[in-house]
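Sorry, can you check?
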Amino acid sequence: MSTIIHGGRLDAAVTKYGGDREDWLDLSTGINPSAYPLPEISNESWQRLPDEVAQSELITAAKKYYQVPEEVKLVPANGTQAIIQNLPYLLKQKNIAIISPTYEEHRYSWKKAGRNVLKAKSLNDAVGMAEVVIVVNPNNPTAETYQRDELLEVARKLEQKSGFLIVDEAFGDCAPELSVVPQMCENIIVLRSFGKFFGLAGLRLGFAICVEAIADELLLRQGPWSVSGPALIIGADALANAQWVSNMRLQIRQNAKDQVEVIEACGLQLIGNAGLFMEFEHHNAIGIHEALLQEHILVRQFADRSTRLRFGLCENMEQLERLAWVLKKNA
């Protein structure tokens, strides 16, 4: 079982620092605080096993939303985490380079499968180190981004040694121009998360976008009914709602801009802004983190990078003012 610390551990914070759960401001994740409005779900969707028609409708909506080329396959799953855990058993390459620091479940899953996992600081370093390169774009937690052309060039270099490029685009909805999906080649595997941008992480829905051979193997490992009936319906509805998506991208961009300005005014230095989360640096990050906890505000701190803090997106100005009040006193 993974011992990796993730965001969203609000229960542990409440246990240690007290207060009622509803009084806490949880900024420890990159989940959109303005969730997609749920469509009406029939009783049948809860009572029957997921059917092929609903799955086909989800796949159609997802392929259009992610701009998946006709010849490329899309596999729905019970969240991208399920895909991350399966990928090491679909690819046989020995050396795996992960652009780090990043989402630690990638490293954990490949090491668990017995692979030689290496941390790389850059794409060029990674290509020279391994046959499989994993990059999160935008990166979590630093918000660093990579352009589509440079990732496609990495894929071409890896192809020369029968390697693969895995691109985790879990936070890619706010910057669709970065996605490699529209110009994918055979040795690229892309992961897309549904719950973060649409604010429905509890739904557990994600996708792998890849060539047919890998898609077939992934489907075999997942088994039948890997996505629930309600998730199929909600996912298809949300991914097809172009107006909501467009409006939400604008809203997130503006809210994130406002939040960055407020936090910077409190004396923290911006490292990167991915829209749904942003990373800052401060020499007293540990003290700030503790002060926020005392005021029942939860953000992400990193044991291996003691001067960094990651903030999720505030839902409204009231929350942002509450955050700023504590930061001004302690930064």
Notes: The mean pLDDT is 96. The first helix runs from residue 10 to 17.
